[in-house]
Specification:
about 280 residues, Rossmann fold, alpha/beta
Length: about 280
């Protein structure tokens, strides 16, 4: 018996990376899944491979696409139990004096406006059922400054608070709303931020893993493991399942301890130097 038997989920941005792995896991746990994204060939191929899945091309920055996506889920599978707002863009860095406000607007359009649009059309369906789980994929960059670009970080911070706002409104309808804040996860997202086309970016996952291992783990992350897509998919499975029936308004941080503080190995010498100066 699977943790999601009988449930129907919509996952945006699920043609690759975290979204694709979550779709695979949800189907394995008994769910039927709508795969939504812009890369049609990838989405249709994934849906065919999973069987209990259907693809619809969706750009979450277009409200009409979002409305059609939710309608497709209900028409295909008869209900909607979980919405995972995962569609997103990379985290390119730019100094404040050189900010491109058009790119800022684009980041807000996808990460915040897009997630809100998805909730707008999912909530009436879930309300009629008196149940549902909405999962917004945020980021540790939404609460800790300096690790990501301004566009992305500000958008993710807004998404975390939007999650809380929606949770306190929708609880009386039986709808839970939570966010997941990943730390650095080895995906093609780093390649996209570096300017690669999406299909090429997916080939850079090994490079991302090596860079995280070399730079992030020693200086920023207490746990010595490089995050992978399955780490986030497993967190999403918990929030989508009835095991989390009393969990709402939570930002579930999956960052290897980054948000807790500096790893002891990174500051041990500094602590020793401080005590020496103090003496």
């Amino acid at each position: 018996m699977g943790a999601l038997d009988g449930k129907v989920a919509v996952i945006t941005g699920s043609t690759s990376g975290i979204g694709a792995r979550t779709a695979e896991l949800f189907v394995a746990e008994g769910a039927r899944v709508v795969i939504a994204g812009r890369r049609e060939e990838n989405g249709r191929r994934l849906a065919r491979s999973l069987g209990a899945a259907s693809f619809i091309r969706t750009d979450v920055s277009h409200e009409a696409d979002v409305e059609a996506m939710i309608a497709h889920a209900v028409k295909s599978f008869g209900r909607l139990d979980c919405l995972m707002n995962n569609a997103g863009s990379g985290s390119g860095y730019q100094e404040v004096a050189n900010i491109d406000l058009k790119r800022f607007d684009e980041a807000i359009s996808v990460h915040v406006r897009g997630a809100l649009a998805c909730m707008k059309y999912a909530v009436p369906v879930m309300s009629a059922q008196r149940s549902g789980s909405i999962i917004n994929i945020a980021s540790v960059n939404g609460t800790r400054a300096g690790l990501g670009g301004h566009y992305y970080s500000a958008a993710k911070a807004a998404l975390i608070h939007l999650t809380r706002c929606a949770a306190v409104e929708l609880g009386e309808k039986g709808i839970r709303v939570n966010s997941i804040s990943p730390g650095p996860i080895a995906t093609g997202g780093f390649g996209k931020s570096a300017g690669f086309e999406p299909d090429e970016a997916e080939k850079t996952v090994g490079l991302a893993k090596a860079a995280i291992s070399a730079v992030v783990l020693p200086r920023y992350q207490p746990l010595p493991y490089v995050g992978c897509v399955d780490d986030i998919a497993q967190a999403a499975l918990f929030l989508a399942s009835d095991a989390s029936r009393l969990v709402s308004g939570l930002d579930l941080v999956v960052d290897g301890g980054i948000s807790a503080g500096w790893p002891i190995g990174a500051v041990r010498d500094d602590r020793a130097r401080f005590l020496e100066h103090f003496r």
